[in-house]
Specification:
With 369 residues, this protein is α/β, with parallel strands linked by helices. The chain is built from twelve helices and 14 strands. It folds into two domains: 221 residues, Type I PLP-dependent aspartate aminotransferase-like (Major domain) (Aspartate Aminotransferase, domain 2, 3-Layer(aba) Sandwich), CATH 3.40.640; 125 residues, Aspartate Aminotransferase, domain 1 (Alpha-Beta Complex). It has a seven-stranded mixed beta sheet with strand order 1-9-8-5-4-2-3, with helices on both faces. It has a four-stranded antiparallel beta sheet with strand order 10-12-14-13. The chain has a three-stranded antiparallel beta sheet with strand order 7-6-11, with no helix packed on it.
Length: 369
């Protein structure tokens, strides 16, 4: 089997659960699989409540809306992230404020966050990028002093922890994604977690077109069709049975890359934030001395697929007006960064071989001391 970058790991149990859902005829949004998935996911995280939604993007959007964030409000977002971290802020009518990330951990630079605060700051969206938790102690202190909400973008960090607590359980809301390349998948889909059961009820109401079922098809306010289907949830239930296995593999693969690449001149692995334990969704490196496209091509020729780091958000034309601060770390990480193969469908031997190939290519192209 060829080496896989971030493909899902699907097997007989997933087929069995999907067929069970089909046979039940509960394939759409009403039925038993969605609430069971929500309950099992919440129990895994130790969260009081979880609400299944259509995507990680929808999760962030509905969290912003439930917090009442909109026009005139500012929301701090790291400049280095997938665009889904910032687009919901615009959907809500608020203004994103893009700030730089730490040079080593690639998560929000706390000092830059402090400099970006204004009286209009109503929320911060810390992104646990590539599975690596942000410094949540510092963010909780900042937000607690100013009554600022935290919406954790945990879409890449399922399984990661901050001082032993799962990412996605430390802020007002945690937002998860089950896209095909995530630790577990429902094909698409996402989840919102919260410490407040009443808020969870409100979110469930909003994502179901704000329908008051006690009055039939009556909708007292603007709602959203952000519901997860039972087909998706049935797949998620099967994946939840394997989540510990998947997480062990991710961490093993990260260790393999660290063993092979640590200490190479001009090469740096993304560093784990002190106090956090990364889920290592995609182990990633920066390389100073080789253009990333050239490195990618050399690795592709030897059977090793890679992916570039996310383009910094402040470089997109429609976000330029929100680029109020310089973000040199985000720019450097993008220019030098590369994601390495970490699909849990790979075995340890194939990843060790990939790590050796990466090392060999780096040395051949000028990385030798």
């Amino acid at each position: 089997m060829p080496l896989l970058l971030d493909a899902p790991n699907l097997g007989e149990r997933e087929k069995e659960m999907l067929l069970q859902c089909v046979d039940s005829t509960y394939v759409s949004t009403a039925g038993p699989f969605v609430p069971e998935f929500e309950e099992r996911f919440a129990r895994y995280l130790g969260a009081p409540a979880a609400v299944a939604v259509q995507s990680g993007t929808a999760a962030i959007h509905i969290a912003l809306l439930e917090l009442g964030i909109g026009a005139g409000d500012e929301v701090i977002v790291p400049a280095l992230s997938f665009v889904a971290s910032v687009n919901p802020v615009l959907y809500a009518g608020a203004s994103p404020v893009l700030v730089d990330v730490d040079a080593d951990t690639w998560t929000l630079d706390i000092q830059r966050v402090r400099e970006a605060l204004t009286p209009r700051t109503k929320a911060i969206i810390p992104v646990h990028i590539y599975g690596n938790p942000c410094d949540m102690d510092a963010l909780l202190e900042i937000c607690g002093q100013r009554n600022i909400a935290i919406i954790e973008d945990a879409t890449e960090s399922l399984g990661g922890t901050w001082r032993g607590k799962p990412t996605g359980t430390l802020g007002e809301f945690g937002c998860f994604s089950f896209n095909g390349n995530k630790l577990i998948t429902t094909g698409g889909g996402g989840m919102v977690t919260t410490r407040d059961a009443e808020r969870a009820k409100r979110v469930k109401f909003l994502v179901n077109q704000a329908r008051d079922a006690s009055k039939g098809y009556y909708h007292p306010e603007l709602g959203y069709n952000y519901r997860m289907t039972n087909l998706e949830a049935s797949l998620g239930l099967a994946q939840m049975e394997r989540i510990d296995e998947f997480l062990r593999k991710k961490r093993l693969f990260a260790h393999v890359y660290k063993e092979a690449l640590d200490g190479l001149p001009g090469v740096a692995l993304q560093k784990q934030t002190p106090g956090g334990e990364s889920a290592w969704w995609l182990p990633s490196i920066t390389v100073e001395h080789i253009p990333v496209p050239e490195l990618q091509e050399a690795l592709r020729e030897r059977g090793v697929p890679t992916r570039r780091i996310f383009s910094p958000l402040h470089t997109y034309p429609y976000l330029l007006q929100h680029a109020l601060f310089a973000c040199p770390n985000a720019e450097r990480i993008y220019e030098q960064g590369l994601n390495l193969p970490a699909s849990t469908a790979n075995d340890e031997e194939s990843v060790r071989r990939a790590a050796e190939i990466v090392r060999d290519v780096l040395l051949e192209k000028g990385g030798r001391a």
